Amino acid sequence: MGGSATSDEASGAVLIADRDAYAVEFNTNNATQSLPSNGCGVIGDSPDDDVWFKFTHDGDAATIMCHFLDDNAVLELFQGPVGSLASIACGYNYLVFPSGMVDGQTYHLRVYSRNTSDLRGKLGIFHTPHPMESECADVDCLGPNLVLNPGIEPGELNATMFQTTGPPVPIGHGLAPHWHTAVATADSYSSGNDFADPEHLPTNLAGSIDLASDVRPRGGGGAGGAFARQSSTYHEALGGKLSAPLVPGVPYLIAFNVRLRGNIGGCDGFGVHLGLEPVAVSYPPFNPPMQIEWQGGPINVTNEWQTICGQIIADQPYEHITIGVLKPRDEVECTAGIVYYYFDDVTVAEVIDALCVTVDVPEVDPATSATVIGDGLNVFPNPANDRLNISIEEGLIGEEAVIELFDVTGKQVHARVVPSLASNVVLELPAELREGLYLVMLRVEGHEPMSARVILHR
Ligand SMILES: [Ca+2]
Ligand SMILES: [Ca+2]
Ligand SMILES: [Ca+2]
What we know:
The chain is mainly β and about 450 residues long. It has three domains: about 10-125, Jelly Rolls, CATH 2.60.120; about 140-355, Galactose-binding domain-like (Jelly Rolls, Sandwich), CATH 2.60.120; about 375-455, Sandwich (Immunoglobulin-like), CATH 2.60.40.1930. Helix content is about 0%, strand content about 35%. It has no helices and 27 strands. The strands form six sheets. It has a six-stranded antiparallel sheet, with no helix packed on it. It is elongated and about 90 Å long. The structure holds calcium ion (3 copies). One calcium ion binds near residues 151, 152, 153, 218 and 222. One calcium ion binds near residues 46, 48, 49 and 112.
């Protein structure tokens, strides 16, 4: 750790060597202005007390975070040698590395109070994982993220439900660009809010609500937040928008990152709801037509960011996403009475290659609504190679049936009529079929169609 060294001039800039920790403390008391203001997009920008740091870029995306501030900080990043430093980015209490930074190159950073008072705080450079990176799938197997503002980053719109001033924000109110309060009064946070506001992440000496857990966004400077409660009608969820509607018949990975505030226990029932319209309701449940739920059992969300994910095949051109605790109210189980969660980095992306998605496909129900072809078909093995066994439930034995196979685009690639179903039907998988995800469907007149998703692995 760098201790409390502070340099008033760039020539003596304090080296930030560590990552993922608040490596240096600083105090601008007695510091004087070293370079003119670049404006930095801050009203009243006042680098009268700038102090200097430097670091060598390691090539990884990162965010510089200020913590335990006693006032608001402006951060300004420079490239080039001391004596001809060129400003490349500014931040307000935090600074996201701009694109174009060069691996191995040394950069300088100055920090100063936004106003003319002294500023104390600590500072760290925190690596930013790829927004779609998780153990659920290799990012290379996924198409572009369809979630607009997946990082729940603040922008022009930067409201929290629990504003320190002003009237309460109604349901459906915007939280961050392309995000709104979907169920009850979910929240959003900005690391760039005023240091004294409780909506500020990371927190500060005055805010105090998260001193124990030092919550930082998973990426960038913004995150969502929501309450959940044991045996209560009151759960919150955030609603977001996709850049394009889902394509029916196409598989998508759905993922979001969640962590607790503090280590006080947790609830189960996290899920994603995909809808044709944005959700904005006072209280759950709201009968989601399609959802994934965390299958990992209750309560294991911790004080670290973790990914909850699932895979679906779209049955409708959904264009809106809602994340939160979506279980019916009487079924949510919590280890603590009231639990609070942060959300960040939401993914809805087409699965280009089903083989590198690690989500267990058969465990994720595609849908729960009547508009959807039901699933419930038992098939094995899965993944399959050259043939697939379909277990037929007793009531259908002897019936005439049609067995169809669809590829990820929804195109029928194989169909076969079975005059009389036996308890096990063997489906030969045509050699010309490519590896990937398929939907096998069984239709019997007078019965709901049944289906299962199968990975073909040659
Ligand atoms: Ca200075
Ligand atoms: Ca100042
Ligand atoms: Ca974020």
